[in-house]
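Re: the 486-residue chain
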Amino acid sequence: MRCFYAGWCLSGLLASAAVASESPRWDAPALVTDGDADPLPSRDALSPAQEKILWDEIRHNVAALRSLQLALPDIAQTVTYNFPLRVEPGLPDYAGFRISAFSDHNAAVGTSQVLDYNGGNRTYDGHRGTDIALYPFSWNKVDSGDMQVIAAAAGTIAYKDDTDASDHNCNVASADPWNYIGVVHSDGRLTLYGHMRHNSLTAKGVGQAVAQGDYLGTAASSGNSSGPHLHFEVRTGGFTSNEWVDPYAGPSSQAASLWTNQRPYLDSAINRLATHSSPPSTPDPCLPTVTNLQDSFTTNQNIYFYAYYRDFQGALPTQLTLYRPDGSVYQTWSYSNATTFSSAWSAAWVQNLPAGSPAGTWRFAADYNGQSYGTFFNVNAPTALTLVSPNGGEQWNLLQPHAVTWTDNFGGDVNIDLYRNNVFVARLASNTASDGAYAWAPAAGLAPGTGYSVRITSVIAPTLQDSSDAVFSLGDTIYADGFDTP
């Protein structure tokens, strides 16, 4: 079966060789957005009573676990942390986070004076953890479960609370309990992962081990929270309010970092490049954004090109380029401004491609702070995707290589998923190149039999997808010589 985006129309499939050979333009498209894109702060402020309840519960559980199974702390086994958030595999974002607040090292709680680990003021009064906010489209990411919370270090689940069904708290005055997990480590330290989405928490329970990188849940805004973020906090000793540890090393913190690879204080990057039919709209900062994302256009239609930055530094120039389908440069320009720093920023330009512009897949690219980024869009060529194989009736043997093949006319990546009787079984590939072929050897753990189908989905435009027209079978009779008969 062949699938198209609703509402796309084919107009003038004219790829003029003369146009394609023109010299690139150096004039910048019109700048339509240039500012802080995240007006909603992401904070938490537990009352003393709430904090006492939370940590008393954790201390009680840790003591019980130590009396039953958990080894005593071994300070010689100092653990280090990996970053505790990752984008759900198969999404087009390069990253989906920004640091909205570090820990406050100023001992004078209750004042306006704050001090982060680097001697700056990227924190708020009395904050003892790291707040990692979602960006861009933060509420959309909450509702889609796009940002996975993962175990920063191996340990044992010491506490787990998933009682708050409200994932959209937008006020730190909320009395709702947090949805959170506390993990105790071999060196005695404990990490807390707070504000997770209701019903997203791992099925593992208190007393069970987690490995570094294991899924714990998805980030949201449950409990005492002003916006979508993960609160990541480290404590040691008796886990009292005076025994917190900042994993970051810096002039106002400890000398040695507890991160395996500590990110720079100014972690300037582009989280996502995207094309839109019109600017995104967020009438209510506490509700999801109307993104207006689109990746297929006709000539004489406005195309809005967006760059979504974290830790934006205006003095660092961004070089932006539009490439024609043949790879030649259509337009290139540079962007910078006088902004010293913003933890979230977006810039956008509008361009109306003239009639006669080459039809096909174009590329929008950016270079910023030593990194390259890109996304794709189609012009006068509605994107299409057709799964070729397996398309019904095949029998593929377990452990043997087979080619999943398809045709498409778009750039970027695709996700490949396996279903049985229309029920999701496994993701075969995330963000694999849309080059028309993927080698797959069915795992031995798959149940043999019929009813299987494959679905291929565009990463940039997930409504563009195609599935097997009919089911295929997996066979399990594999002999040492690789054949399915003796």
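Residues 48-245 form a domain with the Glucose Permease (Domain IIA) fold (CATH 2.70.70.10).
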